[in-house]
Structures are given as C-alpha cells and as structure tokens.
Design a protein that fits this description.
Layout (H helix, E strand, L loop, with lengths): L5 H12 L4 H10 L7 H6 L9 H4 L4 H13 L8 H15 L2 E2 L4 E2 L4 E2 L5 E3 L4 E2 L4 E2 L5 E3 L4 E2 L4 E2 L2 E3 L7 E3 L2 E3 L4 E2 L4 E2 L4 E2 L4 E2 L4 E2 L7 E4 L4 E5 L17
Parallel strand pairs: 1-4, 2-5, 3-6, 4-7, 5-8, 6-9, 7-12, 8-13, 9-14, 12-15, 13-16, 14-17, 16-18
Antiparallel strand pairs: 10-11, 18-19
Length: about 240
C-alpha cells in the first residue's frame, strides 16, 4: 500500500471512532469525492434491508444505517477503484458494521450483505468482487477464508406454501476453506476446515473437512490435494 492516502484514512478513522452521525457521513462522503448530500436525505433514508421482516426483530440504529450506506455508496465513486484507499477503508467500516471482524480483512468492490450485525469474520478473510452474503440467519466465516467472485450465500428461505413464511438457518465456513467463483451456499450448510467448493457448485449439504465439492447439487468429488500441508502452510495469502 502507498502512503498517499494515509492522512485521508486517518481523518476518516477519527470520524468513525467518534461515532458516525449525519454530519460525519457528509464529511466522509465529501472526502471521498462525492457530491454534497442533503442532510434530509441522510436523515430520512431507509436501507433495503430495513424492508425485510428481520429488521423488525433487529432494527438498525442511525449509526448502523449510515455505516451500511457508506459501505455501498463507496462503490459508486472512483475512490472504490483505488486499492490503497478502498481496501483499508472497507476494513475500517467492517470493524464497525460486522458483529466480529478479524485482522487483515479484505473486500473488493460490489460485496453486499444485508445485516452486518449478524456477520462474523475471522482473520485474513478475502471477499472477492460481487460476493452476495445474506446474513439474516447468521453467517460465520473463519480465518484465512476466500469467498470468490459472484458467490451467493443464503441463510434464509421461504415456504413454498406462503412466501411470507420464512426459515432462518446459519451458515458456517471454517478456517482455510475456499469458496470458488459463482458458487451458491444454501441455508444451514457448514463448509469444513480446508475444504474447497468448486466454481458454480450449488451446496445444500455440509462439506467435510479437506473435501472438494462440485456440481449442482454439489457432492464431494475428492480430497483436497495438500501435499501434506495444513493450516498456515497452505499459504492462503491473497494479495502481494
């Protein structure tokens, strides 16, 4: 990372640390190059997640609402393409949005989630471009996990008899697992430690430790080829 953005990030961090309010959101938005936003807009906005039944159980505070807004709004600005700015900024936001966010968290543009309050992320996690995380039923991502481009993770489903009736089931992705591009993880699934979900797989059943799952519906096709390596020696290093 280059130091050119350090003063800007430090200023944003100070604003967030003081507790984000409408004025602070306006300042951050301006620092990132956004056009001025009327106070009434920020004060009167409603997030898409707040239209869901889950929001009746866990209403957003104003600060949570503004943090979610900044996360998604960043992707509408050229600043989102500037890696030395956008990656550490998303890390600052995630630390305040998520239920838990570990160190060295990385997220590219287009990552979406509906209830950050129900998302737990370990250390060294990488969310690739376009990943969609439905966290209504609870989502836990372990250490050194990679979530690939355009992955979809669901933690709720609807009754076929009544769309109003919903079911919530948590998803757990254990340490050193990799979820490859375009995979879909369905509610209630656990992905085992060091497991791999192949591109385009639709996973409706648990994937055991160190297994490779592929297909639709996904099945275990083999064991991961680790050459005797496990944990940190698998070199889950995402960026250089």
């Amino acid at each position: 990372m280059t130091p050119v953005f350090d003063p800007l990030l430090a200023e944003i961090q100070d604003i967030l640390a003081a507790g984000l309010d409408i004025r602070g959101t306006q300042v951050i938005w301006g620092l990132l190059g956004g056009q001025p936003l009327p106070e009434a807009w920020l004060g009167g906005m409603k997030l898409a997640a707040e239209t869901l039944p889950k929001a009746l159980e866990r209403p957003f505070t104003q600060e949570e609402r503004l943090l979610h807004f900044l996360w998604e709004a960043l992707d509408r600005l050229p600043a989102s393409l500037m890696v030395p700015l956008s990656l550490p900024l998303r890390r600052l936001l995630a630390a305040r949005i998520f239920k838990k966010c570990g160190k060295a968290f990385l997220a590219e543009e287009g990552v979406r989630f509906n209830f950050g309050q129900d998302l737990e992320v370990g250390d060294n996690v990488y969310l690739r471009r376009g990943a969609i995380l439905d966290t209504q039923g609870g989502l836990t991502i372990g250490h050194s996990v990679s979530i690939g481009e355009d992955v979809r993770i669901f933690t709720h489903a609807h009754s076929e008899a009544s769309h109003i009736e919903r079911f919530y089931k948590p998803v757990v992705i254990e340490d050193f697992a990799k979820i490859s591009t375009g995979a879909i993880i369905l509610p209630g699934v656990s992905i085992g430690r060091e497991a791999i979900v192949s591109s385009g797989a639709v996973v409706g059943q648990n994937v055991p430790m160190n297994a490779v799952a592929a297909g639709s519906p996904a099945v275990v096709v083999r064991q991961r080829q680790t050459d005797g390596r496990h944990g940190e020696s698998l070199d889950h290093i995402w960026l250089f």
